């Protein structure tokens, strides 16, 4: 993706002066954690050499001042996490649950989606939207749908007691603001998934939030849920950023619970699609998703947790009935008032820059810079 740095604040929200933000930039020395506070940018590598260690330390001040916010104007922004595991929750909104059922019934064939959508919405739409997951009412609805031969594995995680939690991609594989984002070259039915991403420390408690794009291949997962790994985990298939907004007196979990997320897709062919998502419609509270992620598991370096999306584009892009799918060159812009703006341009995973900077390379770099404790 051609680098374009048009704004000094590089995707920060309008109220950035009142918040505390963490991020990562590429410098001549290597990946560098930064803190943005009180109008200044601080190099935090001598406080903690990795973002995961910085978050675990709880430090929100100090570091070496690099200058004012203008230093971001020419900086290459990396994904704001490094050694954290990248987890994701699926089917946490009623609309996305119905679309997953449509994919399943269509067996990944986009030509059948339009016909199925009306039928499934008329049977399931109201009941799924009004049911509290794991409740006695959900159990009764499940049995009724089984009796009607309308039950689905996606409805199990939509209204059952257990959330879907999966690993999105390997450690260090996420890309940041203005990076190319990849879709498999052999996918013909896919879409972005704009989401709020919780950032948790080793204790599983959220310290802040950011934005993310959990790219989805509808044809692969629709053919079989066992293809989820191939549908979700590909080169450059997960973007995050631009920065993590830390919780403080002015930004709390309650702000996450009511966050609105807007998305625009602009194609080189002149196509424009606009979508909107609100966390008010999520079926499971973010704290519950964090708890289920930590259930009988540990994440000593912390984790990032995608909370799911209600965005499921059904508008036709080309011929009638085909629905939406990405084309190379699409620009995806995801924004939220308190979290900022994340922009990525779509390419194929085969054509995106190869992921070569792994855990071993990171520690080699940190050792060379004298940042590892003896």
TrEMBL record:
Belongs to the FAH family. This is Fumarylacetoacetate hydrolase family protein. GO terms for molecular function: hydrolase activity. Residues 170-346 form the Fumarylacetoacetase-like C-terminal domain. Coiled coil: none annotated. Pfam families: FAA_hydrolase (PF01557). It comes from the Bacteria. It comes from Novosphingobium beihaiensis. Keywords: Hydrolase, Metal-binding. Signal peptide: none annotated.
